[in-house]
Amino acid sequence: MSFEINGKVALVTGANRGIGKSIVETLLAHGAKKVYAAVRNPQSAQPLVEKYGDRVVPVEVDLQTQETIQAAASAASDVELVINNAGVYKSESPLSSAAFDALQFEMDVNVYGLIRVAQAFAPVLKNNGGGVFVQLNSVVSIKTFLSAATYSASKAAAYSITQALREELAGQGTAVMSVHPGPIATEMADHAGFTDIAEPPSVVAEAIVAALASGEFHVFPDAMAKQFHSGYESYAKNFIEADMAEA
């Protein structure tokens, strides 16, 4: 399903920095009428408000707190595009003494948070004609890296949930997109040790806008991600994106 952002209303979680901020700015550059900047601290989105005026509306969203997400869904009742970008990263291996705490935190935000956002905003999107739900996953959702094993596990689970949402939300006319960046120039990439090869957040934001227009489900935006896609594309087309009920 093609979705042109011009004139539309969007909501972006984790909108105050990194990829999220770039997504907000890119949506506005492509003609979005309004973007709700969904952040834990609405004050952190003030620079966006100062730059774009009332086209940016900060709303409080903590992916660990259903009440804030539900309140945001009530406040942003005109949303036609939801981009769940917010996430957390811990660099722990399975045998680390911190593995359990890291995985619990990452699952709560990256997976349960995704479900919370989807449950709150699916009815909003339905009421506004269907729209699109976009989930920021990662290349580590299809390939685990030892140095980020718990994060990889949480993103693999988020990717699995994203696939289920694609199937479930199709019935209400809502398209779903799964975005799989590699190293992007953010604090997370710095922490993971990928600073030297990281690409700018705008690469992800522009790829999302292009995929909205073309109706793609999978998006592999940067150079490393495209390498993953070259090996994964056949499987994705024949199994993930295919209607297995017709197989």
TrEMBL record:
Residues 8-187 form the Ketoreductase domain. One of its GO terms (molecular function) is oxidoreductase activity. Its EC number is 1.-.-.-. InterPro entries: KR_dom, NAD(P)-bd_dom_sf, Sc_DH/Rdtase_CS, SDR_fam. Pfam families: adh_short. PROSITE patterns: ADH_SHORT. SMART domains: PKS_KR. The keyword Amino-acid biosynthesis does not apply. Keywords: Oxidoreductase. Gene3D superfamilies: NAD(P)-binding Rossmann-like Domain. Coiled coil: none annotated. Belongs to the short-chain dehydrogenases/reductases (SDR) family. This is Putative oxidoreductase. It comes from Blastopirellula retiformator.
